């Protein structure tokens, strides 16, 4: 049953992708695949956005789950909520651009996403910003791209690195 749902979800995603206006780049086969999407982003959690009704996972990072509790100064706090709010602050209701890297096991795009920075003409790579500020970790299972950012956050003791926490994938395994 799970396999059937996965196949149907993938087909639906591909259908939706073909019906929405995207920048396209030609492939060697002559078929044009979407390469990115831009628009107003709705933040779902610290590593997931929705743009133009497309659920997008941020490539190479894993953020605490919405109900995940971390410890700072021996006191529990909802680090999943903190991570979600951080991503909202970085976006600041600005137009977000996400460039596809892959599809996840559910058929959702996995992307590197950016938003305008505070300085004129600057751009924030949201994936890296979430990791370097300690609001997410590098998802080493899929990419080592953000390991330096994670090491910087850990060494600085910022975000979730201020205290104790389960890696998001370990927390999911325990509690979901």
Bulk shape = globular
How many structural domains can be distinguished in the coordinates? Answer: 1
Q: Number of helical runs?
A: 5
Determine the N-to-C terminus distance: 19 Å
Average pLDDT level? 86
β-sheet strand percentage: 25-35%
Question: What does it look like?
Answer:
The chain is α+β, with helices and mostly antiparallel strands and 176 residues long. The protein has one domain: OB fold (Dihydrolipoamide Acetyltransferase, E2P) (Beta Barrel), CATH 2.40.50.90. The chain has five helices and eleven strands, in the order αβββββββαβββαβαα. It has helices at 2-19, 79-91, 126-132, 147-156, 168-175; strands spanning 23-26, 32-45, 48-51, 54-58, 61-62, 69-72, 75-78, 95-103, 109-116, 123-125, 137-138. The strands form three sheets. A five-stranded mixed β-barrel has the order 2-3-4-9-8. A hairpin with a 2-residue loop joins β6 and β7. α3 runs parallel beside α4 (147-156). The longest helix is centred in the N-terminal third of the chain and has 18 residues, at 2-19. The protein is globular. Mean pLDDT is 86; it is low at 6-33.
């Amino acid at each position: 049953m799970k396999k059937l749902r996965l196949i149907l979800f993938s087909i639906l995603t591909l259908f939706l992708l073909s019906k929405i206006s995207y920048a396209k780049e030609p492939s060697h086969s002559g078929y044009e695949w979407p390469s990115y999407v831009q628009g107003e982003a709705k933040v779902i959690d610290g590593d997931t956005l929705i743009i133009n009704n497309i659920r997008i996972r941020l490539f190479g990072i894993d953020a605490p789950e919405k109900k995940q509790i971390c410890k700072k100064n021996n006191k529990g706090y909802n680090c999943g909520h903190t991570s979600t709010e951080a991503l909202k602050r970085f976006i600041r209701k600005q137009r977000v651009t996400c460039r596809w890297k892959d599809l996840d096991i559910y058929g959702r795009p996995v992307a590197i996403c950016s938003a305008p920075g505070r300085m004129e003409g600057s751009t924030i790579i949201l994936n890296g910003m979430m990791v370097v500020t300690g609001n997410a970790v590098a998802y080493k299972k899929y990419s080592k791209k953000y390991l330096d950012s994670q090491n910087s956050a850990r060494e600085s003791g910022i975000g979730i690195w201020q205290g104790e926490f389960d890696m998001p994938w370990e927390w999911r395994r325990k509690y979901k």
